[in-house]
């Protein structure tokens, strides 16, 4: 099992990752489950068992469709943050 906050290699991958620009990562089919002032809880994909992660509000790009509770769509986040979280090559790290 991956450490908390990390994505395991066997997590269902029902989403597509694109790099719109060198500084961002776009994750298709994301859904915000919860939101706070500092972070959002996001389901990465629509498959059963899709990973749930907390993403700081500060790393969410202005082009993101997902930034508040119950938003569904493209999640655009800073590439440096995916590297910091060791998300791996699926996330442009």
Topology at a glance:
Layout: E1 17-18, E2 24-35, E3 39-44, E4 52-56, E5 72-78, H1 79-84
Antiparallel strand pairs: 1-2, 2-3, 2-5, 3-4
Describe it.
This protein is 6% helix and 34% strand. The chain is mostly beta strands and 93 residues long. Strands 1, 2, 3, 4 and 5 form a five-stranded antiparallel beta sheet that branches. Strand 2 (24-35) and strand 3 form a beta hairpin. It is globular and about 25 Å long.
Binned strand content: 25-35%
Give the number of helices. 1
C-alpha termini separation = 20 Å
Low-confidence parts, pLDDT < 50 over ≥5 residues? Answer: 1-6
Indicate the structural class. mainly beta
The biggest beta sheet reads: 5 strands, antiparallel
Number of strands: 5
Q: Residue share in helices?
A: under 10%
Query: What is the overall pLDDT average?
Result: 80
Topology pattern, helix = H, strand = E: EEEEEH
Q: Overall 3D geometry?
A: globular
Radius of gyration: 12 Å
Q: What distinguishing features does this structure have?
A:
five-stranded antiparallel β-sheet; about 90 residues; 5 strands; mainly beta; disordered N terminus
Short description:
By secondary structure, this protein is mainly beta.
């Amino acid at each position: 099992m991956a450490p908390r906050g990390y994505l395991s290699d066997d997590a269902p991958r029902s989403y597509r990752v694109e790099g719109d620009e060198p500084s961002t990562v776009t994750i298709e089919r994301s859904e915000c489950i919860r939101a706070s002032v500092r972070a959002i809880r996001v389901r990465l994909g629509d498959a059963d068992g899709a990973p749930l992660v907390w993403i700081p509000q500060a790393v969410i790009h202005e082009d993101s469709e997902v930034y508040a509770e119950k938003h569904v769509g493209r999640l655009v986040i800073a590439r440096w943050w995916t590297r910091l979280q060791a998300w791996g090559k699926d996330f442009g790290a």
